[in-house]
Design goal:
The protein contains 21 helices and 34 strands. It is elongated and about 150 Å long. The two termini are 32 Å apart. With 929 residues, it is an alpha+beta fold. Strands 1, 3, 13, 16, 20, 25, 28, 29 and 30 form a 9-stranded mixed beta sheet that branches.
Amino acid sequence: MNAVQRFIRSRVLLLTASILIAAMCLSVLVQGQSQAALNRTVDQNSRGLYDILVQARADDNGGLMQPDIATGQGGISFDQLDSLRKLSGTSVAAPISLVSRVTQNLESPRLDATDYLGYNAGLVGTAGDPSATDPVKWPAAESVLSDTPKNYRLTASAVSSDGQSDHTLFKTMAEGSLGKAQLIEEQVEGGKNVRIAGPEGETGVKFPAPAGGSEHSLFNLSVSLPLAPQVTESVVAVDPVAERALLGPAGDFLAPLEKAPPADARSASAIGRHFESLFTTGISMDELKEGPDFLGVKLKYWAPLMSQYQQAKRDGQLTEDSQAIPLIVRSGTSLDLEYSVKIEEIDGSGNVVKDVGTVTRSLDKDYLPFVSKSPFALAWPGSKDLAQLLGDTGGFSQGLYNPATWSTDFASAPKYQDGATAGNGAVDKSAIPGEWVTVNRLPEKAANGVPVDQTQRKPVDERAYREDLETGQKLATPLAMVYGTFDAEQVKDVAGDVNRLPLGGYDPTPFTLTKDASGNDVENTELKPSLSATGLASQSAGAITDYYGLAAARGYEDNASVIDAVRVRAKVPGSWKEAQPEVEQLANEIRDMGLQATIVAGSAREDASIFVPGYSKDDAGKESPLGTVQQSWVRQDAADAVSGSLTGTNLTLLFLTLIGAALLTGASTVSYVRKRRSEAGTLRAMGWTQARIRSWVLAEFGVGAALLAVAGIVLSLLSWNPATAIVSASVLVLYAGAAFFAAQQLRHRDVVDQEPQHDERLIAVDSPLTFANRQLSTNKFNTISLAVAVGVFAAAVGGMVALLIDIPRAAGASALSGLAAASITLPSIILGLSGVAVGLLLTMVTGRFELQAKRQYLGTLQAMGWNPDMLGQVRFFENAMVGTVALPLGVLGALGVGLLLAPYAALWAAVAGLVAVLCWIPIATKVVR
């Protein structure tokens, strides 16, 4: 027979080679699918809205970029911006800068109690508006107040929260009597006059100044409440055209800002006089509803602009240098401020007769910086909003009366210092605390000039984590001019998720408290921004303006270098990997201009753990830390790191699976060839030389090696992956090495036909255990071969388990890491399980080489009267003893492989090796019968 026929006849060689080839095909296929899923996941999530972040200087944060790229430090000039845009590789260059902090009072809070008097044509405002309700459809009069005045105690309070604890900012009480209003008709010169007055004996309710008193109107009794604490916002500047190009259709909210007047046409006084003239010459109701047209923009919020302009003019705040600043303001707020009023009916001695109820209101979605979306009014229990009976004019709220105060104090981005680095590459940070900022103060004087009692409020100190910004030389009070609104959450959605890059202040990046000051885990709590906006946690910028607005707010006259950052998108399509060469070339060209260019294509968000010291202090001035918070930062080069790390894990799993299978095939081969010594002896007796006998056996192995080579070549061509070729070549080398080693074992030895008698070395057979021990001792080579095979199997299992456990750590801490790790987890598990199955199968094949001899002696034992249980115990004890020999090799081998490939999971590798050996014993006992 030729070599091929002998190869097929041997069955064992055909079986082991077939198993090895099947393992190669399956493993390469699964590894290829896993790699494809990894590449697809990384490519789809590694290129954000821009590719390069350009700054004049930037802190080295160990590969982590903080989200506050609009720092207020400037450093980039408009000439440099123009040069950036002229580079051939630039598609979009969108600048952004932090302008300042803006502090403002809320509209004066009030408590409204329904006190509706019914329709009366004589009252001003009940006629003339076509959108008003027809008089015949007006409801009957109703009121939550009694005809006879009753005494009430109102307790107003405001509570703010940082997300962790509540802080009562003030609690003020006022008492007085309130009752249902009445219409009084008076005879005046020229006719009759109708007015609204309180009932006889009503004193009203008056809180301390600067709050007003109470008054009756057509629909309500309104009680003026204590002022709410001031709220501070941040303002950023953008180039609206470039920003829209960066955001795409989602940036259409910036379109009105493109129509803002040039710098020399923004005089606050001139614009204020222009709007005053509109009302002098007359303006239609439709124009009031849509907003007066100003250079192509319908100014919906004209009423707050007018009232703030007139107030600033009365107070002498406006000068000839004052500029109007066009703004797109944020809709809603994440500031946690709750205003409450507790209402109690009392008797003449001040004792509570009835608890009417407590009403509360938060800023929430109705809040608009600079203008206020609706009056900050709380409703008396049981009250209704009947103002719409008057038509649309009922919605023309003046909004905020006083202009905001602009300041650059404590406005810059927070500073951090690095701490320890975790096993997955995450770097701990520590916030650098600054000075204390005092908030919750009342104005020195009320609107009527009356001094304000400052003892009503206890000022609150808040820790600042920010520094002051530089300003120009020509500071003048600006006038806010609201052009439109934007939704911060929608902007955040546009920025993406896994590959989210910071836009620069108007996309919210919250902090989440994860550990308290003692280091104990706490339920994740999102921190709320502080009233002063100088704390670590901040919300989205309250408003967006253009660079003329920045110059006006900061007092710059010349072309100052005020651009904080430029977000550059390269003019190249495709994934981050496809665009990488062009992006790197563009970054180098930018660096040649003397600017710092950080490539963010291929980056991903990553939660940074930040320790916050000196967060609060007690009455004695002792400072206490907050604990540890998490915030989403940007991990640079995350795609490269994740792709490289997980590709390495993929290939290592492939290598471990196939090399383990090849080693087990070698062990099986050596055991099998030793059985053919009798054939070798016969051939030697026929005159064959030792070399010819080895060549005769190696020819059979050559067939198996050829099949493996063909399979390796085909798989390498199909996958077109050098790693597949390397692994296939390694398998072939191991198979060939095992064949040569096996051929060396074909040395003829005399066969002893009869067992020596009365040998003291013989083990007495008195139980299944001693019989199993004798059999293994008699066949030491096969026993050791099988033990080595089981040990190699256990070591391979331990290595694969360690690699699987180590995937999350190896992937890193970024959001892309988790997504990529999830994409290869299932294929990796399948690859690992296939390796385990192949290894287990090959150890079973190795164990079957002595199957015929075992059947003979087990038949002899059965003839001697041994029952099936005792025969089963013989098989079990044989495998248990083999497992005992294999156990140290398997555990130590698994530990070694784990330390080499995945040190963080090495102990798990040793445990897996132990479990693999323990599981092999019953499986081998059950299968090999």
